[in-house]
Structure formats: C-alpha cells, structure tokens
Design a protein that fits this description.
- The protein is an alpha+beta fold and 141 residues long.
- The protein is 40% helix and 15% strand.
- It has six helices and five strands, in the order ααααββββαβα.
- Strand 1 and strand 2 (77-80) form a beta hairpin.
- Helix 2 crosses helix 3 and helix 3 crosses helix 4 (51-63).
- The longest helix is centred in the first third of the chain and has 13 residues, at 17-29.
- The model has no long low-confidence stretch (mean pLDDT 90).
- This is Fur family transcriptional regulator, zinc uptake regulator.
- Pfam families: FUR.
C-alpha cells in the first residue's frame, strides 16, 4: 500500500480516504474486480462514496501506472500492477473470463518502427480477445 501511495505523492496527488479505500479494495480482491465490486467494498468504510468517484480514482490509478484496466464487453475489470511482473491477458468475448498470459509478443521490430516515426515507447498493454475453452465447447458455467 505505501509504495502505491508514494507513487501518487511523487506525481503530486493527494492521498484521500477514498483513494486509500480503492487501493485497499483492489488489494483485497486480488485479480480482476469490477468497479462495482470495488464500490461495494469501499462503501464499508466510505458509505457516501459514489460509483463516479470509484471510476475517477481507477482512471487516475491507471494513468499513474498503479492499476491496469482490462477492457471487456461485459464491463472493465482491474488489477494492481505488480512491479517486475510484465504480462498480458486473454479475454473471452462470450463470458468475459480473463486469464493472465505470461509472455510478451513485443519484439525489437516494434521499437524500431516506433523510432522511425519519432516515438519512444515507454510501455504497452495487450489484451487478446477470443472464445475460452468452456464457451467454445458449450460448457459455460
């Protein structure tokens, strides 16, 4: 928690009770809570917090690199970025199931192409969309 708060401080943001509660909720959920899940958790200590406040804080946490937002047609989900653990995701377009993919398809060719266009790559995210095994075989749970 303190490392995440120090990142916010370094970037010039205040440490509000709502931000603390959002980070705490993310840590408690582990992988892939929705904004609604986070709201329900935060309301235990911050009963007047709104879903809009949750989204604003999640957006900020994503912008500063504390949280990764994963886009799904069933609603976005979130995970805390773990320093030193770079990964991507597989997302089922049928049920929304999300799995970590511990390989990275980026290679030097991307960096060279970006440099040709005057870009310096500072980070990237990939979500691969498809149909999970259960949906593909009709075994939805």
């Amino acid at each position: 928690m303190e490392k995440k708060l120090s990142i916010l401080r370094e970037k010039g943001y205040k440490i509000t009770p709502q931000r603390r509660a959002v980070i705490t909720a993310l840590e408690e959920f582990g992988k892939f809570p929705t904004a609604q899940n986070i709201l329900e958790s935060v309301k235990k200590t911050q009963p007047d917090v709104s879903l809009d406040t949750i989204y604003r804080n999640l957006t900020l946490l994503a912008e500063v690199g504390i949280v990764h937002e994963i886009h799904r047609h069933t609603g976005n989900i979130y995970e805390i970025v773990t320093p030193g653990h770079h990964h991507h995701h597989l997302v089922c377009t049928e049920c929304g199931r999300t799995e970590c993919l511990d390989i990275c398809p980026v290679n030097d060719a991307y960096v060279r192409e970006a440099e040709k266009k005057g870009f310096q790559i500072t980070g990237h995210t990939f979500e691969f969309y498809g149909i999970c095994h259960d949906c593909n075989t009709g075994n939805k749970k």
